[in-house]
Design a protein that fits this description.
This is Peptidyl-prolyl cis-trans isomerase. The chain is of the alpha+beta class. The protein has helices at about 5-15, 45-55, 150-160, 190-209, and strands spanning about 25-30, 35-40, 65-70, 75-80, 105-110, 125, 145-150, 165, 170-175, 180-185. The strands form two sheets. The chain has an eight-stranded antiparallel sheet with strand order 3-4-6-5-7-2-1-10. It is globular and about 55 Å long. About 40% of the residues are buried.
């Protein structure tokens, strides 16, 4: 078995609680640039992950774009359609930024406004280590709730696309729309199957080159 696949499967098995097989332990984003698999941390961010799974099951993320991409910082989605019409849930999520998870490269967190508990469903991917987004004794941070298991190269590709202003957003909107075609929750077994298929496809592509 390839070393990359072994490492992914081992990390997946060690990270999952015993009941993960019966609920969504992962979120798969199928984007116009490729797939991104997110591992949820239900232990550290139970309120946030529960809401993200609920929104995923409701189809909230389907058809939305990555509307904010800043190289070396973050790639954000979950709030706007291709026409830049807002799609924001009404219910807010309690800020869980004090859970010990840090905004490091590859970690996924809940976006919000200036008010600490104003996050509703927009999420962002850390493209680098972003200590400024972590909490301190003087401020709330941004709650990390998961990590990228596969597809970080898709996010790095996003960061290479030129961005600019597109009303109503003043900046950082990719000139080439990056669409979340579908978001789906996966349980442990489905995630394992997806990772195996993903690695096999990756190796086949490498062998063809």
């Amino acid at each position: 078995m390839p070393r990359t696949l072994c490492a992914l499967l081992l990390a997946l098995c060690l990270a999952l609680p015993a009941d993960a097989a019966t609920r969504s332990s992962h979120i798969l984003l199928e984007t116009s640039l490729g797939d991104i698999l997110i591992e949820l941390n239900h232990r550290r961010a139970p309120l946030t992950t529960a809401r993200i799974v609920e929104l995923t099951d409701e189809g909230h993320y389907d058809g939305l774009i990555f509307h904010r991409v800043i190289p070396g910082f973050v790639a954000q989605t979950g709030g706007f359609t291709r026409a830049l019409e807002p799609r924001n849930p009404e219910a807010t999520i309690v800020n869980e930024s004090g859970n010990g998870l840090r905004n490091r490269r590859g970690k996924v967190a809940l976006a919000r406004g200036n008010e600490p508990h104003s996050g509703t469903g927009q999420i962002y991917f850390n493209l680098d280590d972003n200590d400024s987004l972590d909490p301190s004794s003087r401020r709330w941070g941004y709650a990390v709730f998961g990590r990228v298991i596969a597809g970080m190269e898709v996010l790095d590709t996003m960061a290479e696309i030129p961005t600019g202003a597109r009303p109503p957003l003043p900046s950082d909107v990719p000139e080439q729309p990056i669409v979340v075609e579908r978001a789906v929750g996966l349980d442990r077994d489905a995630a394992l199957e997806w990772i195996i298929a993903w690695e096999e496809a990756r190796m086949e592509k490498e062998n063809e080159q």
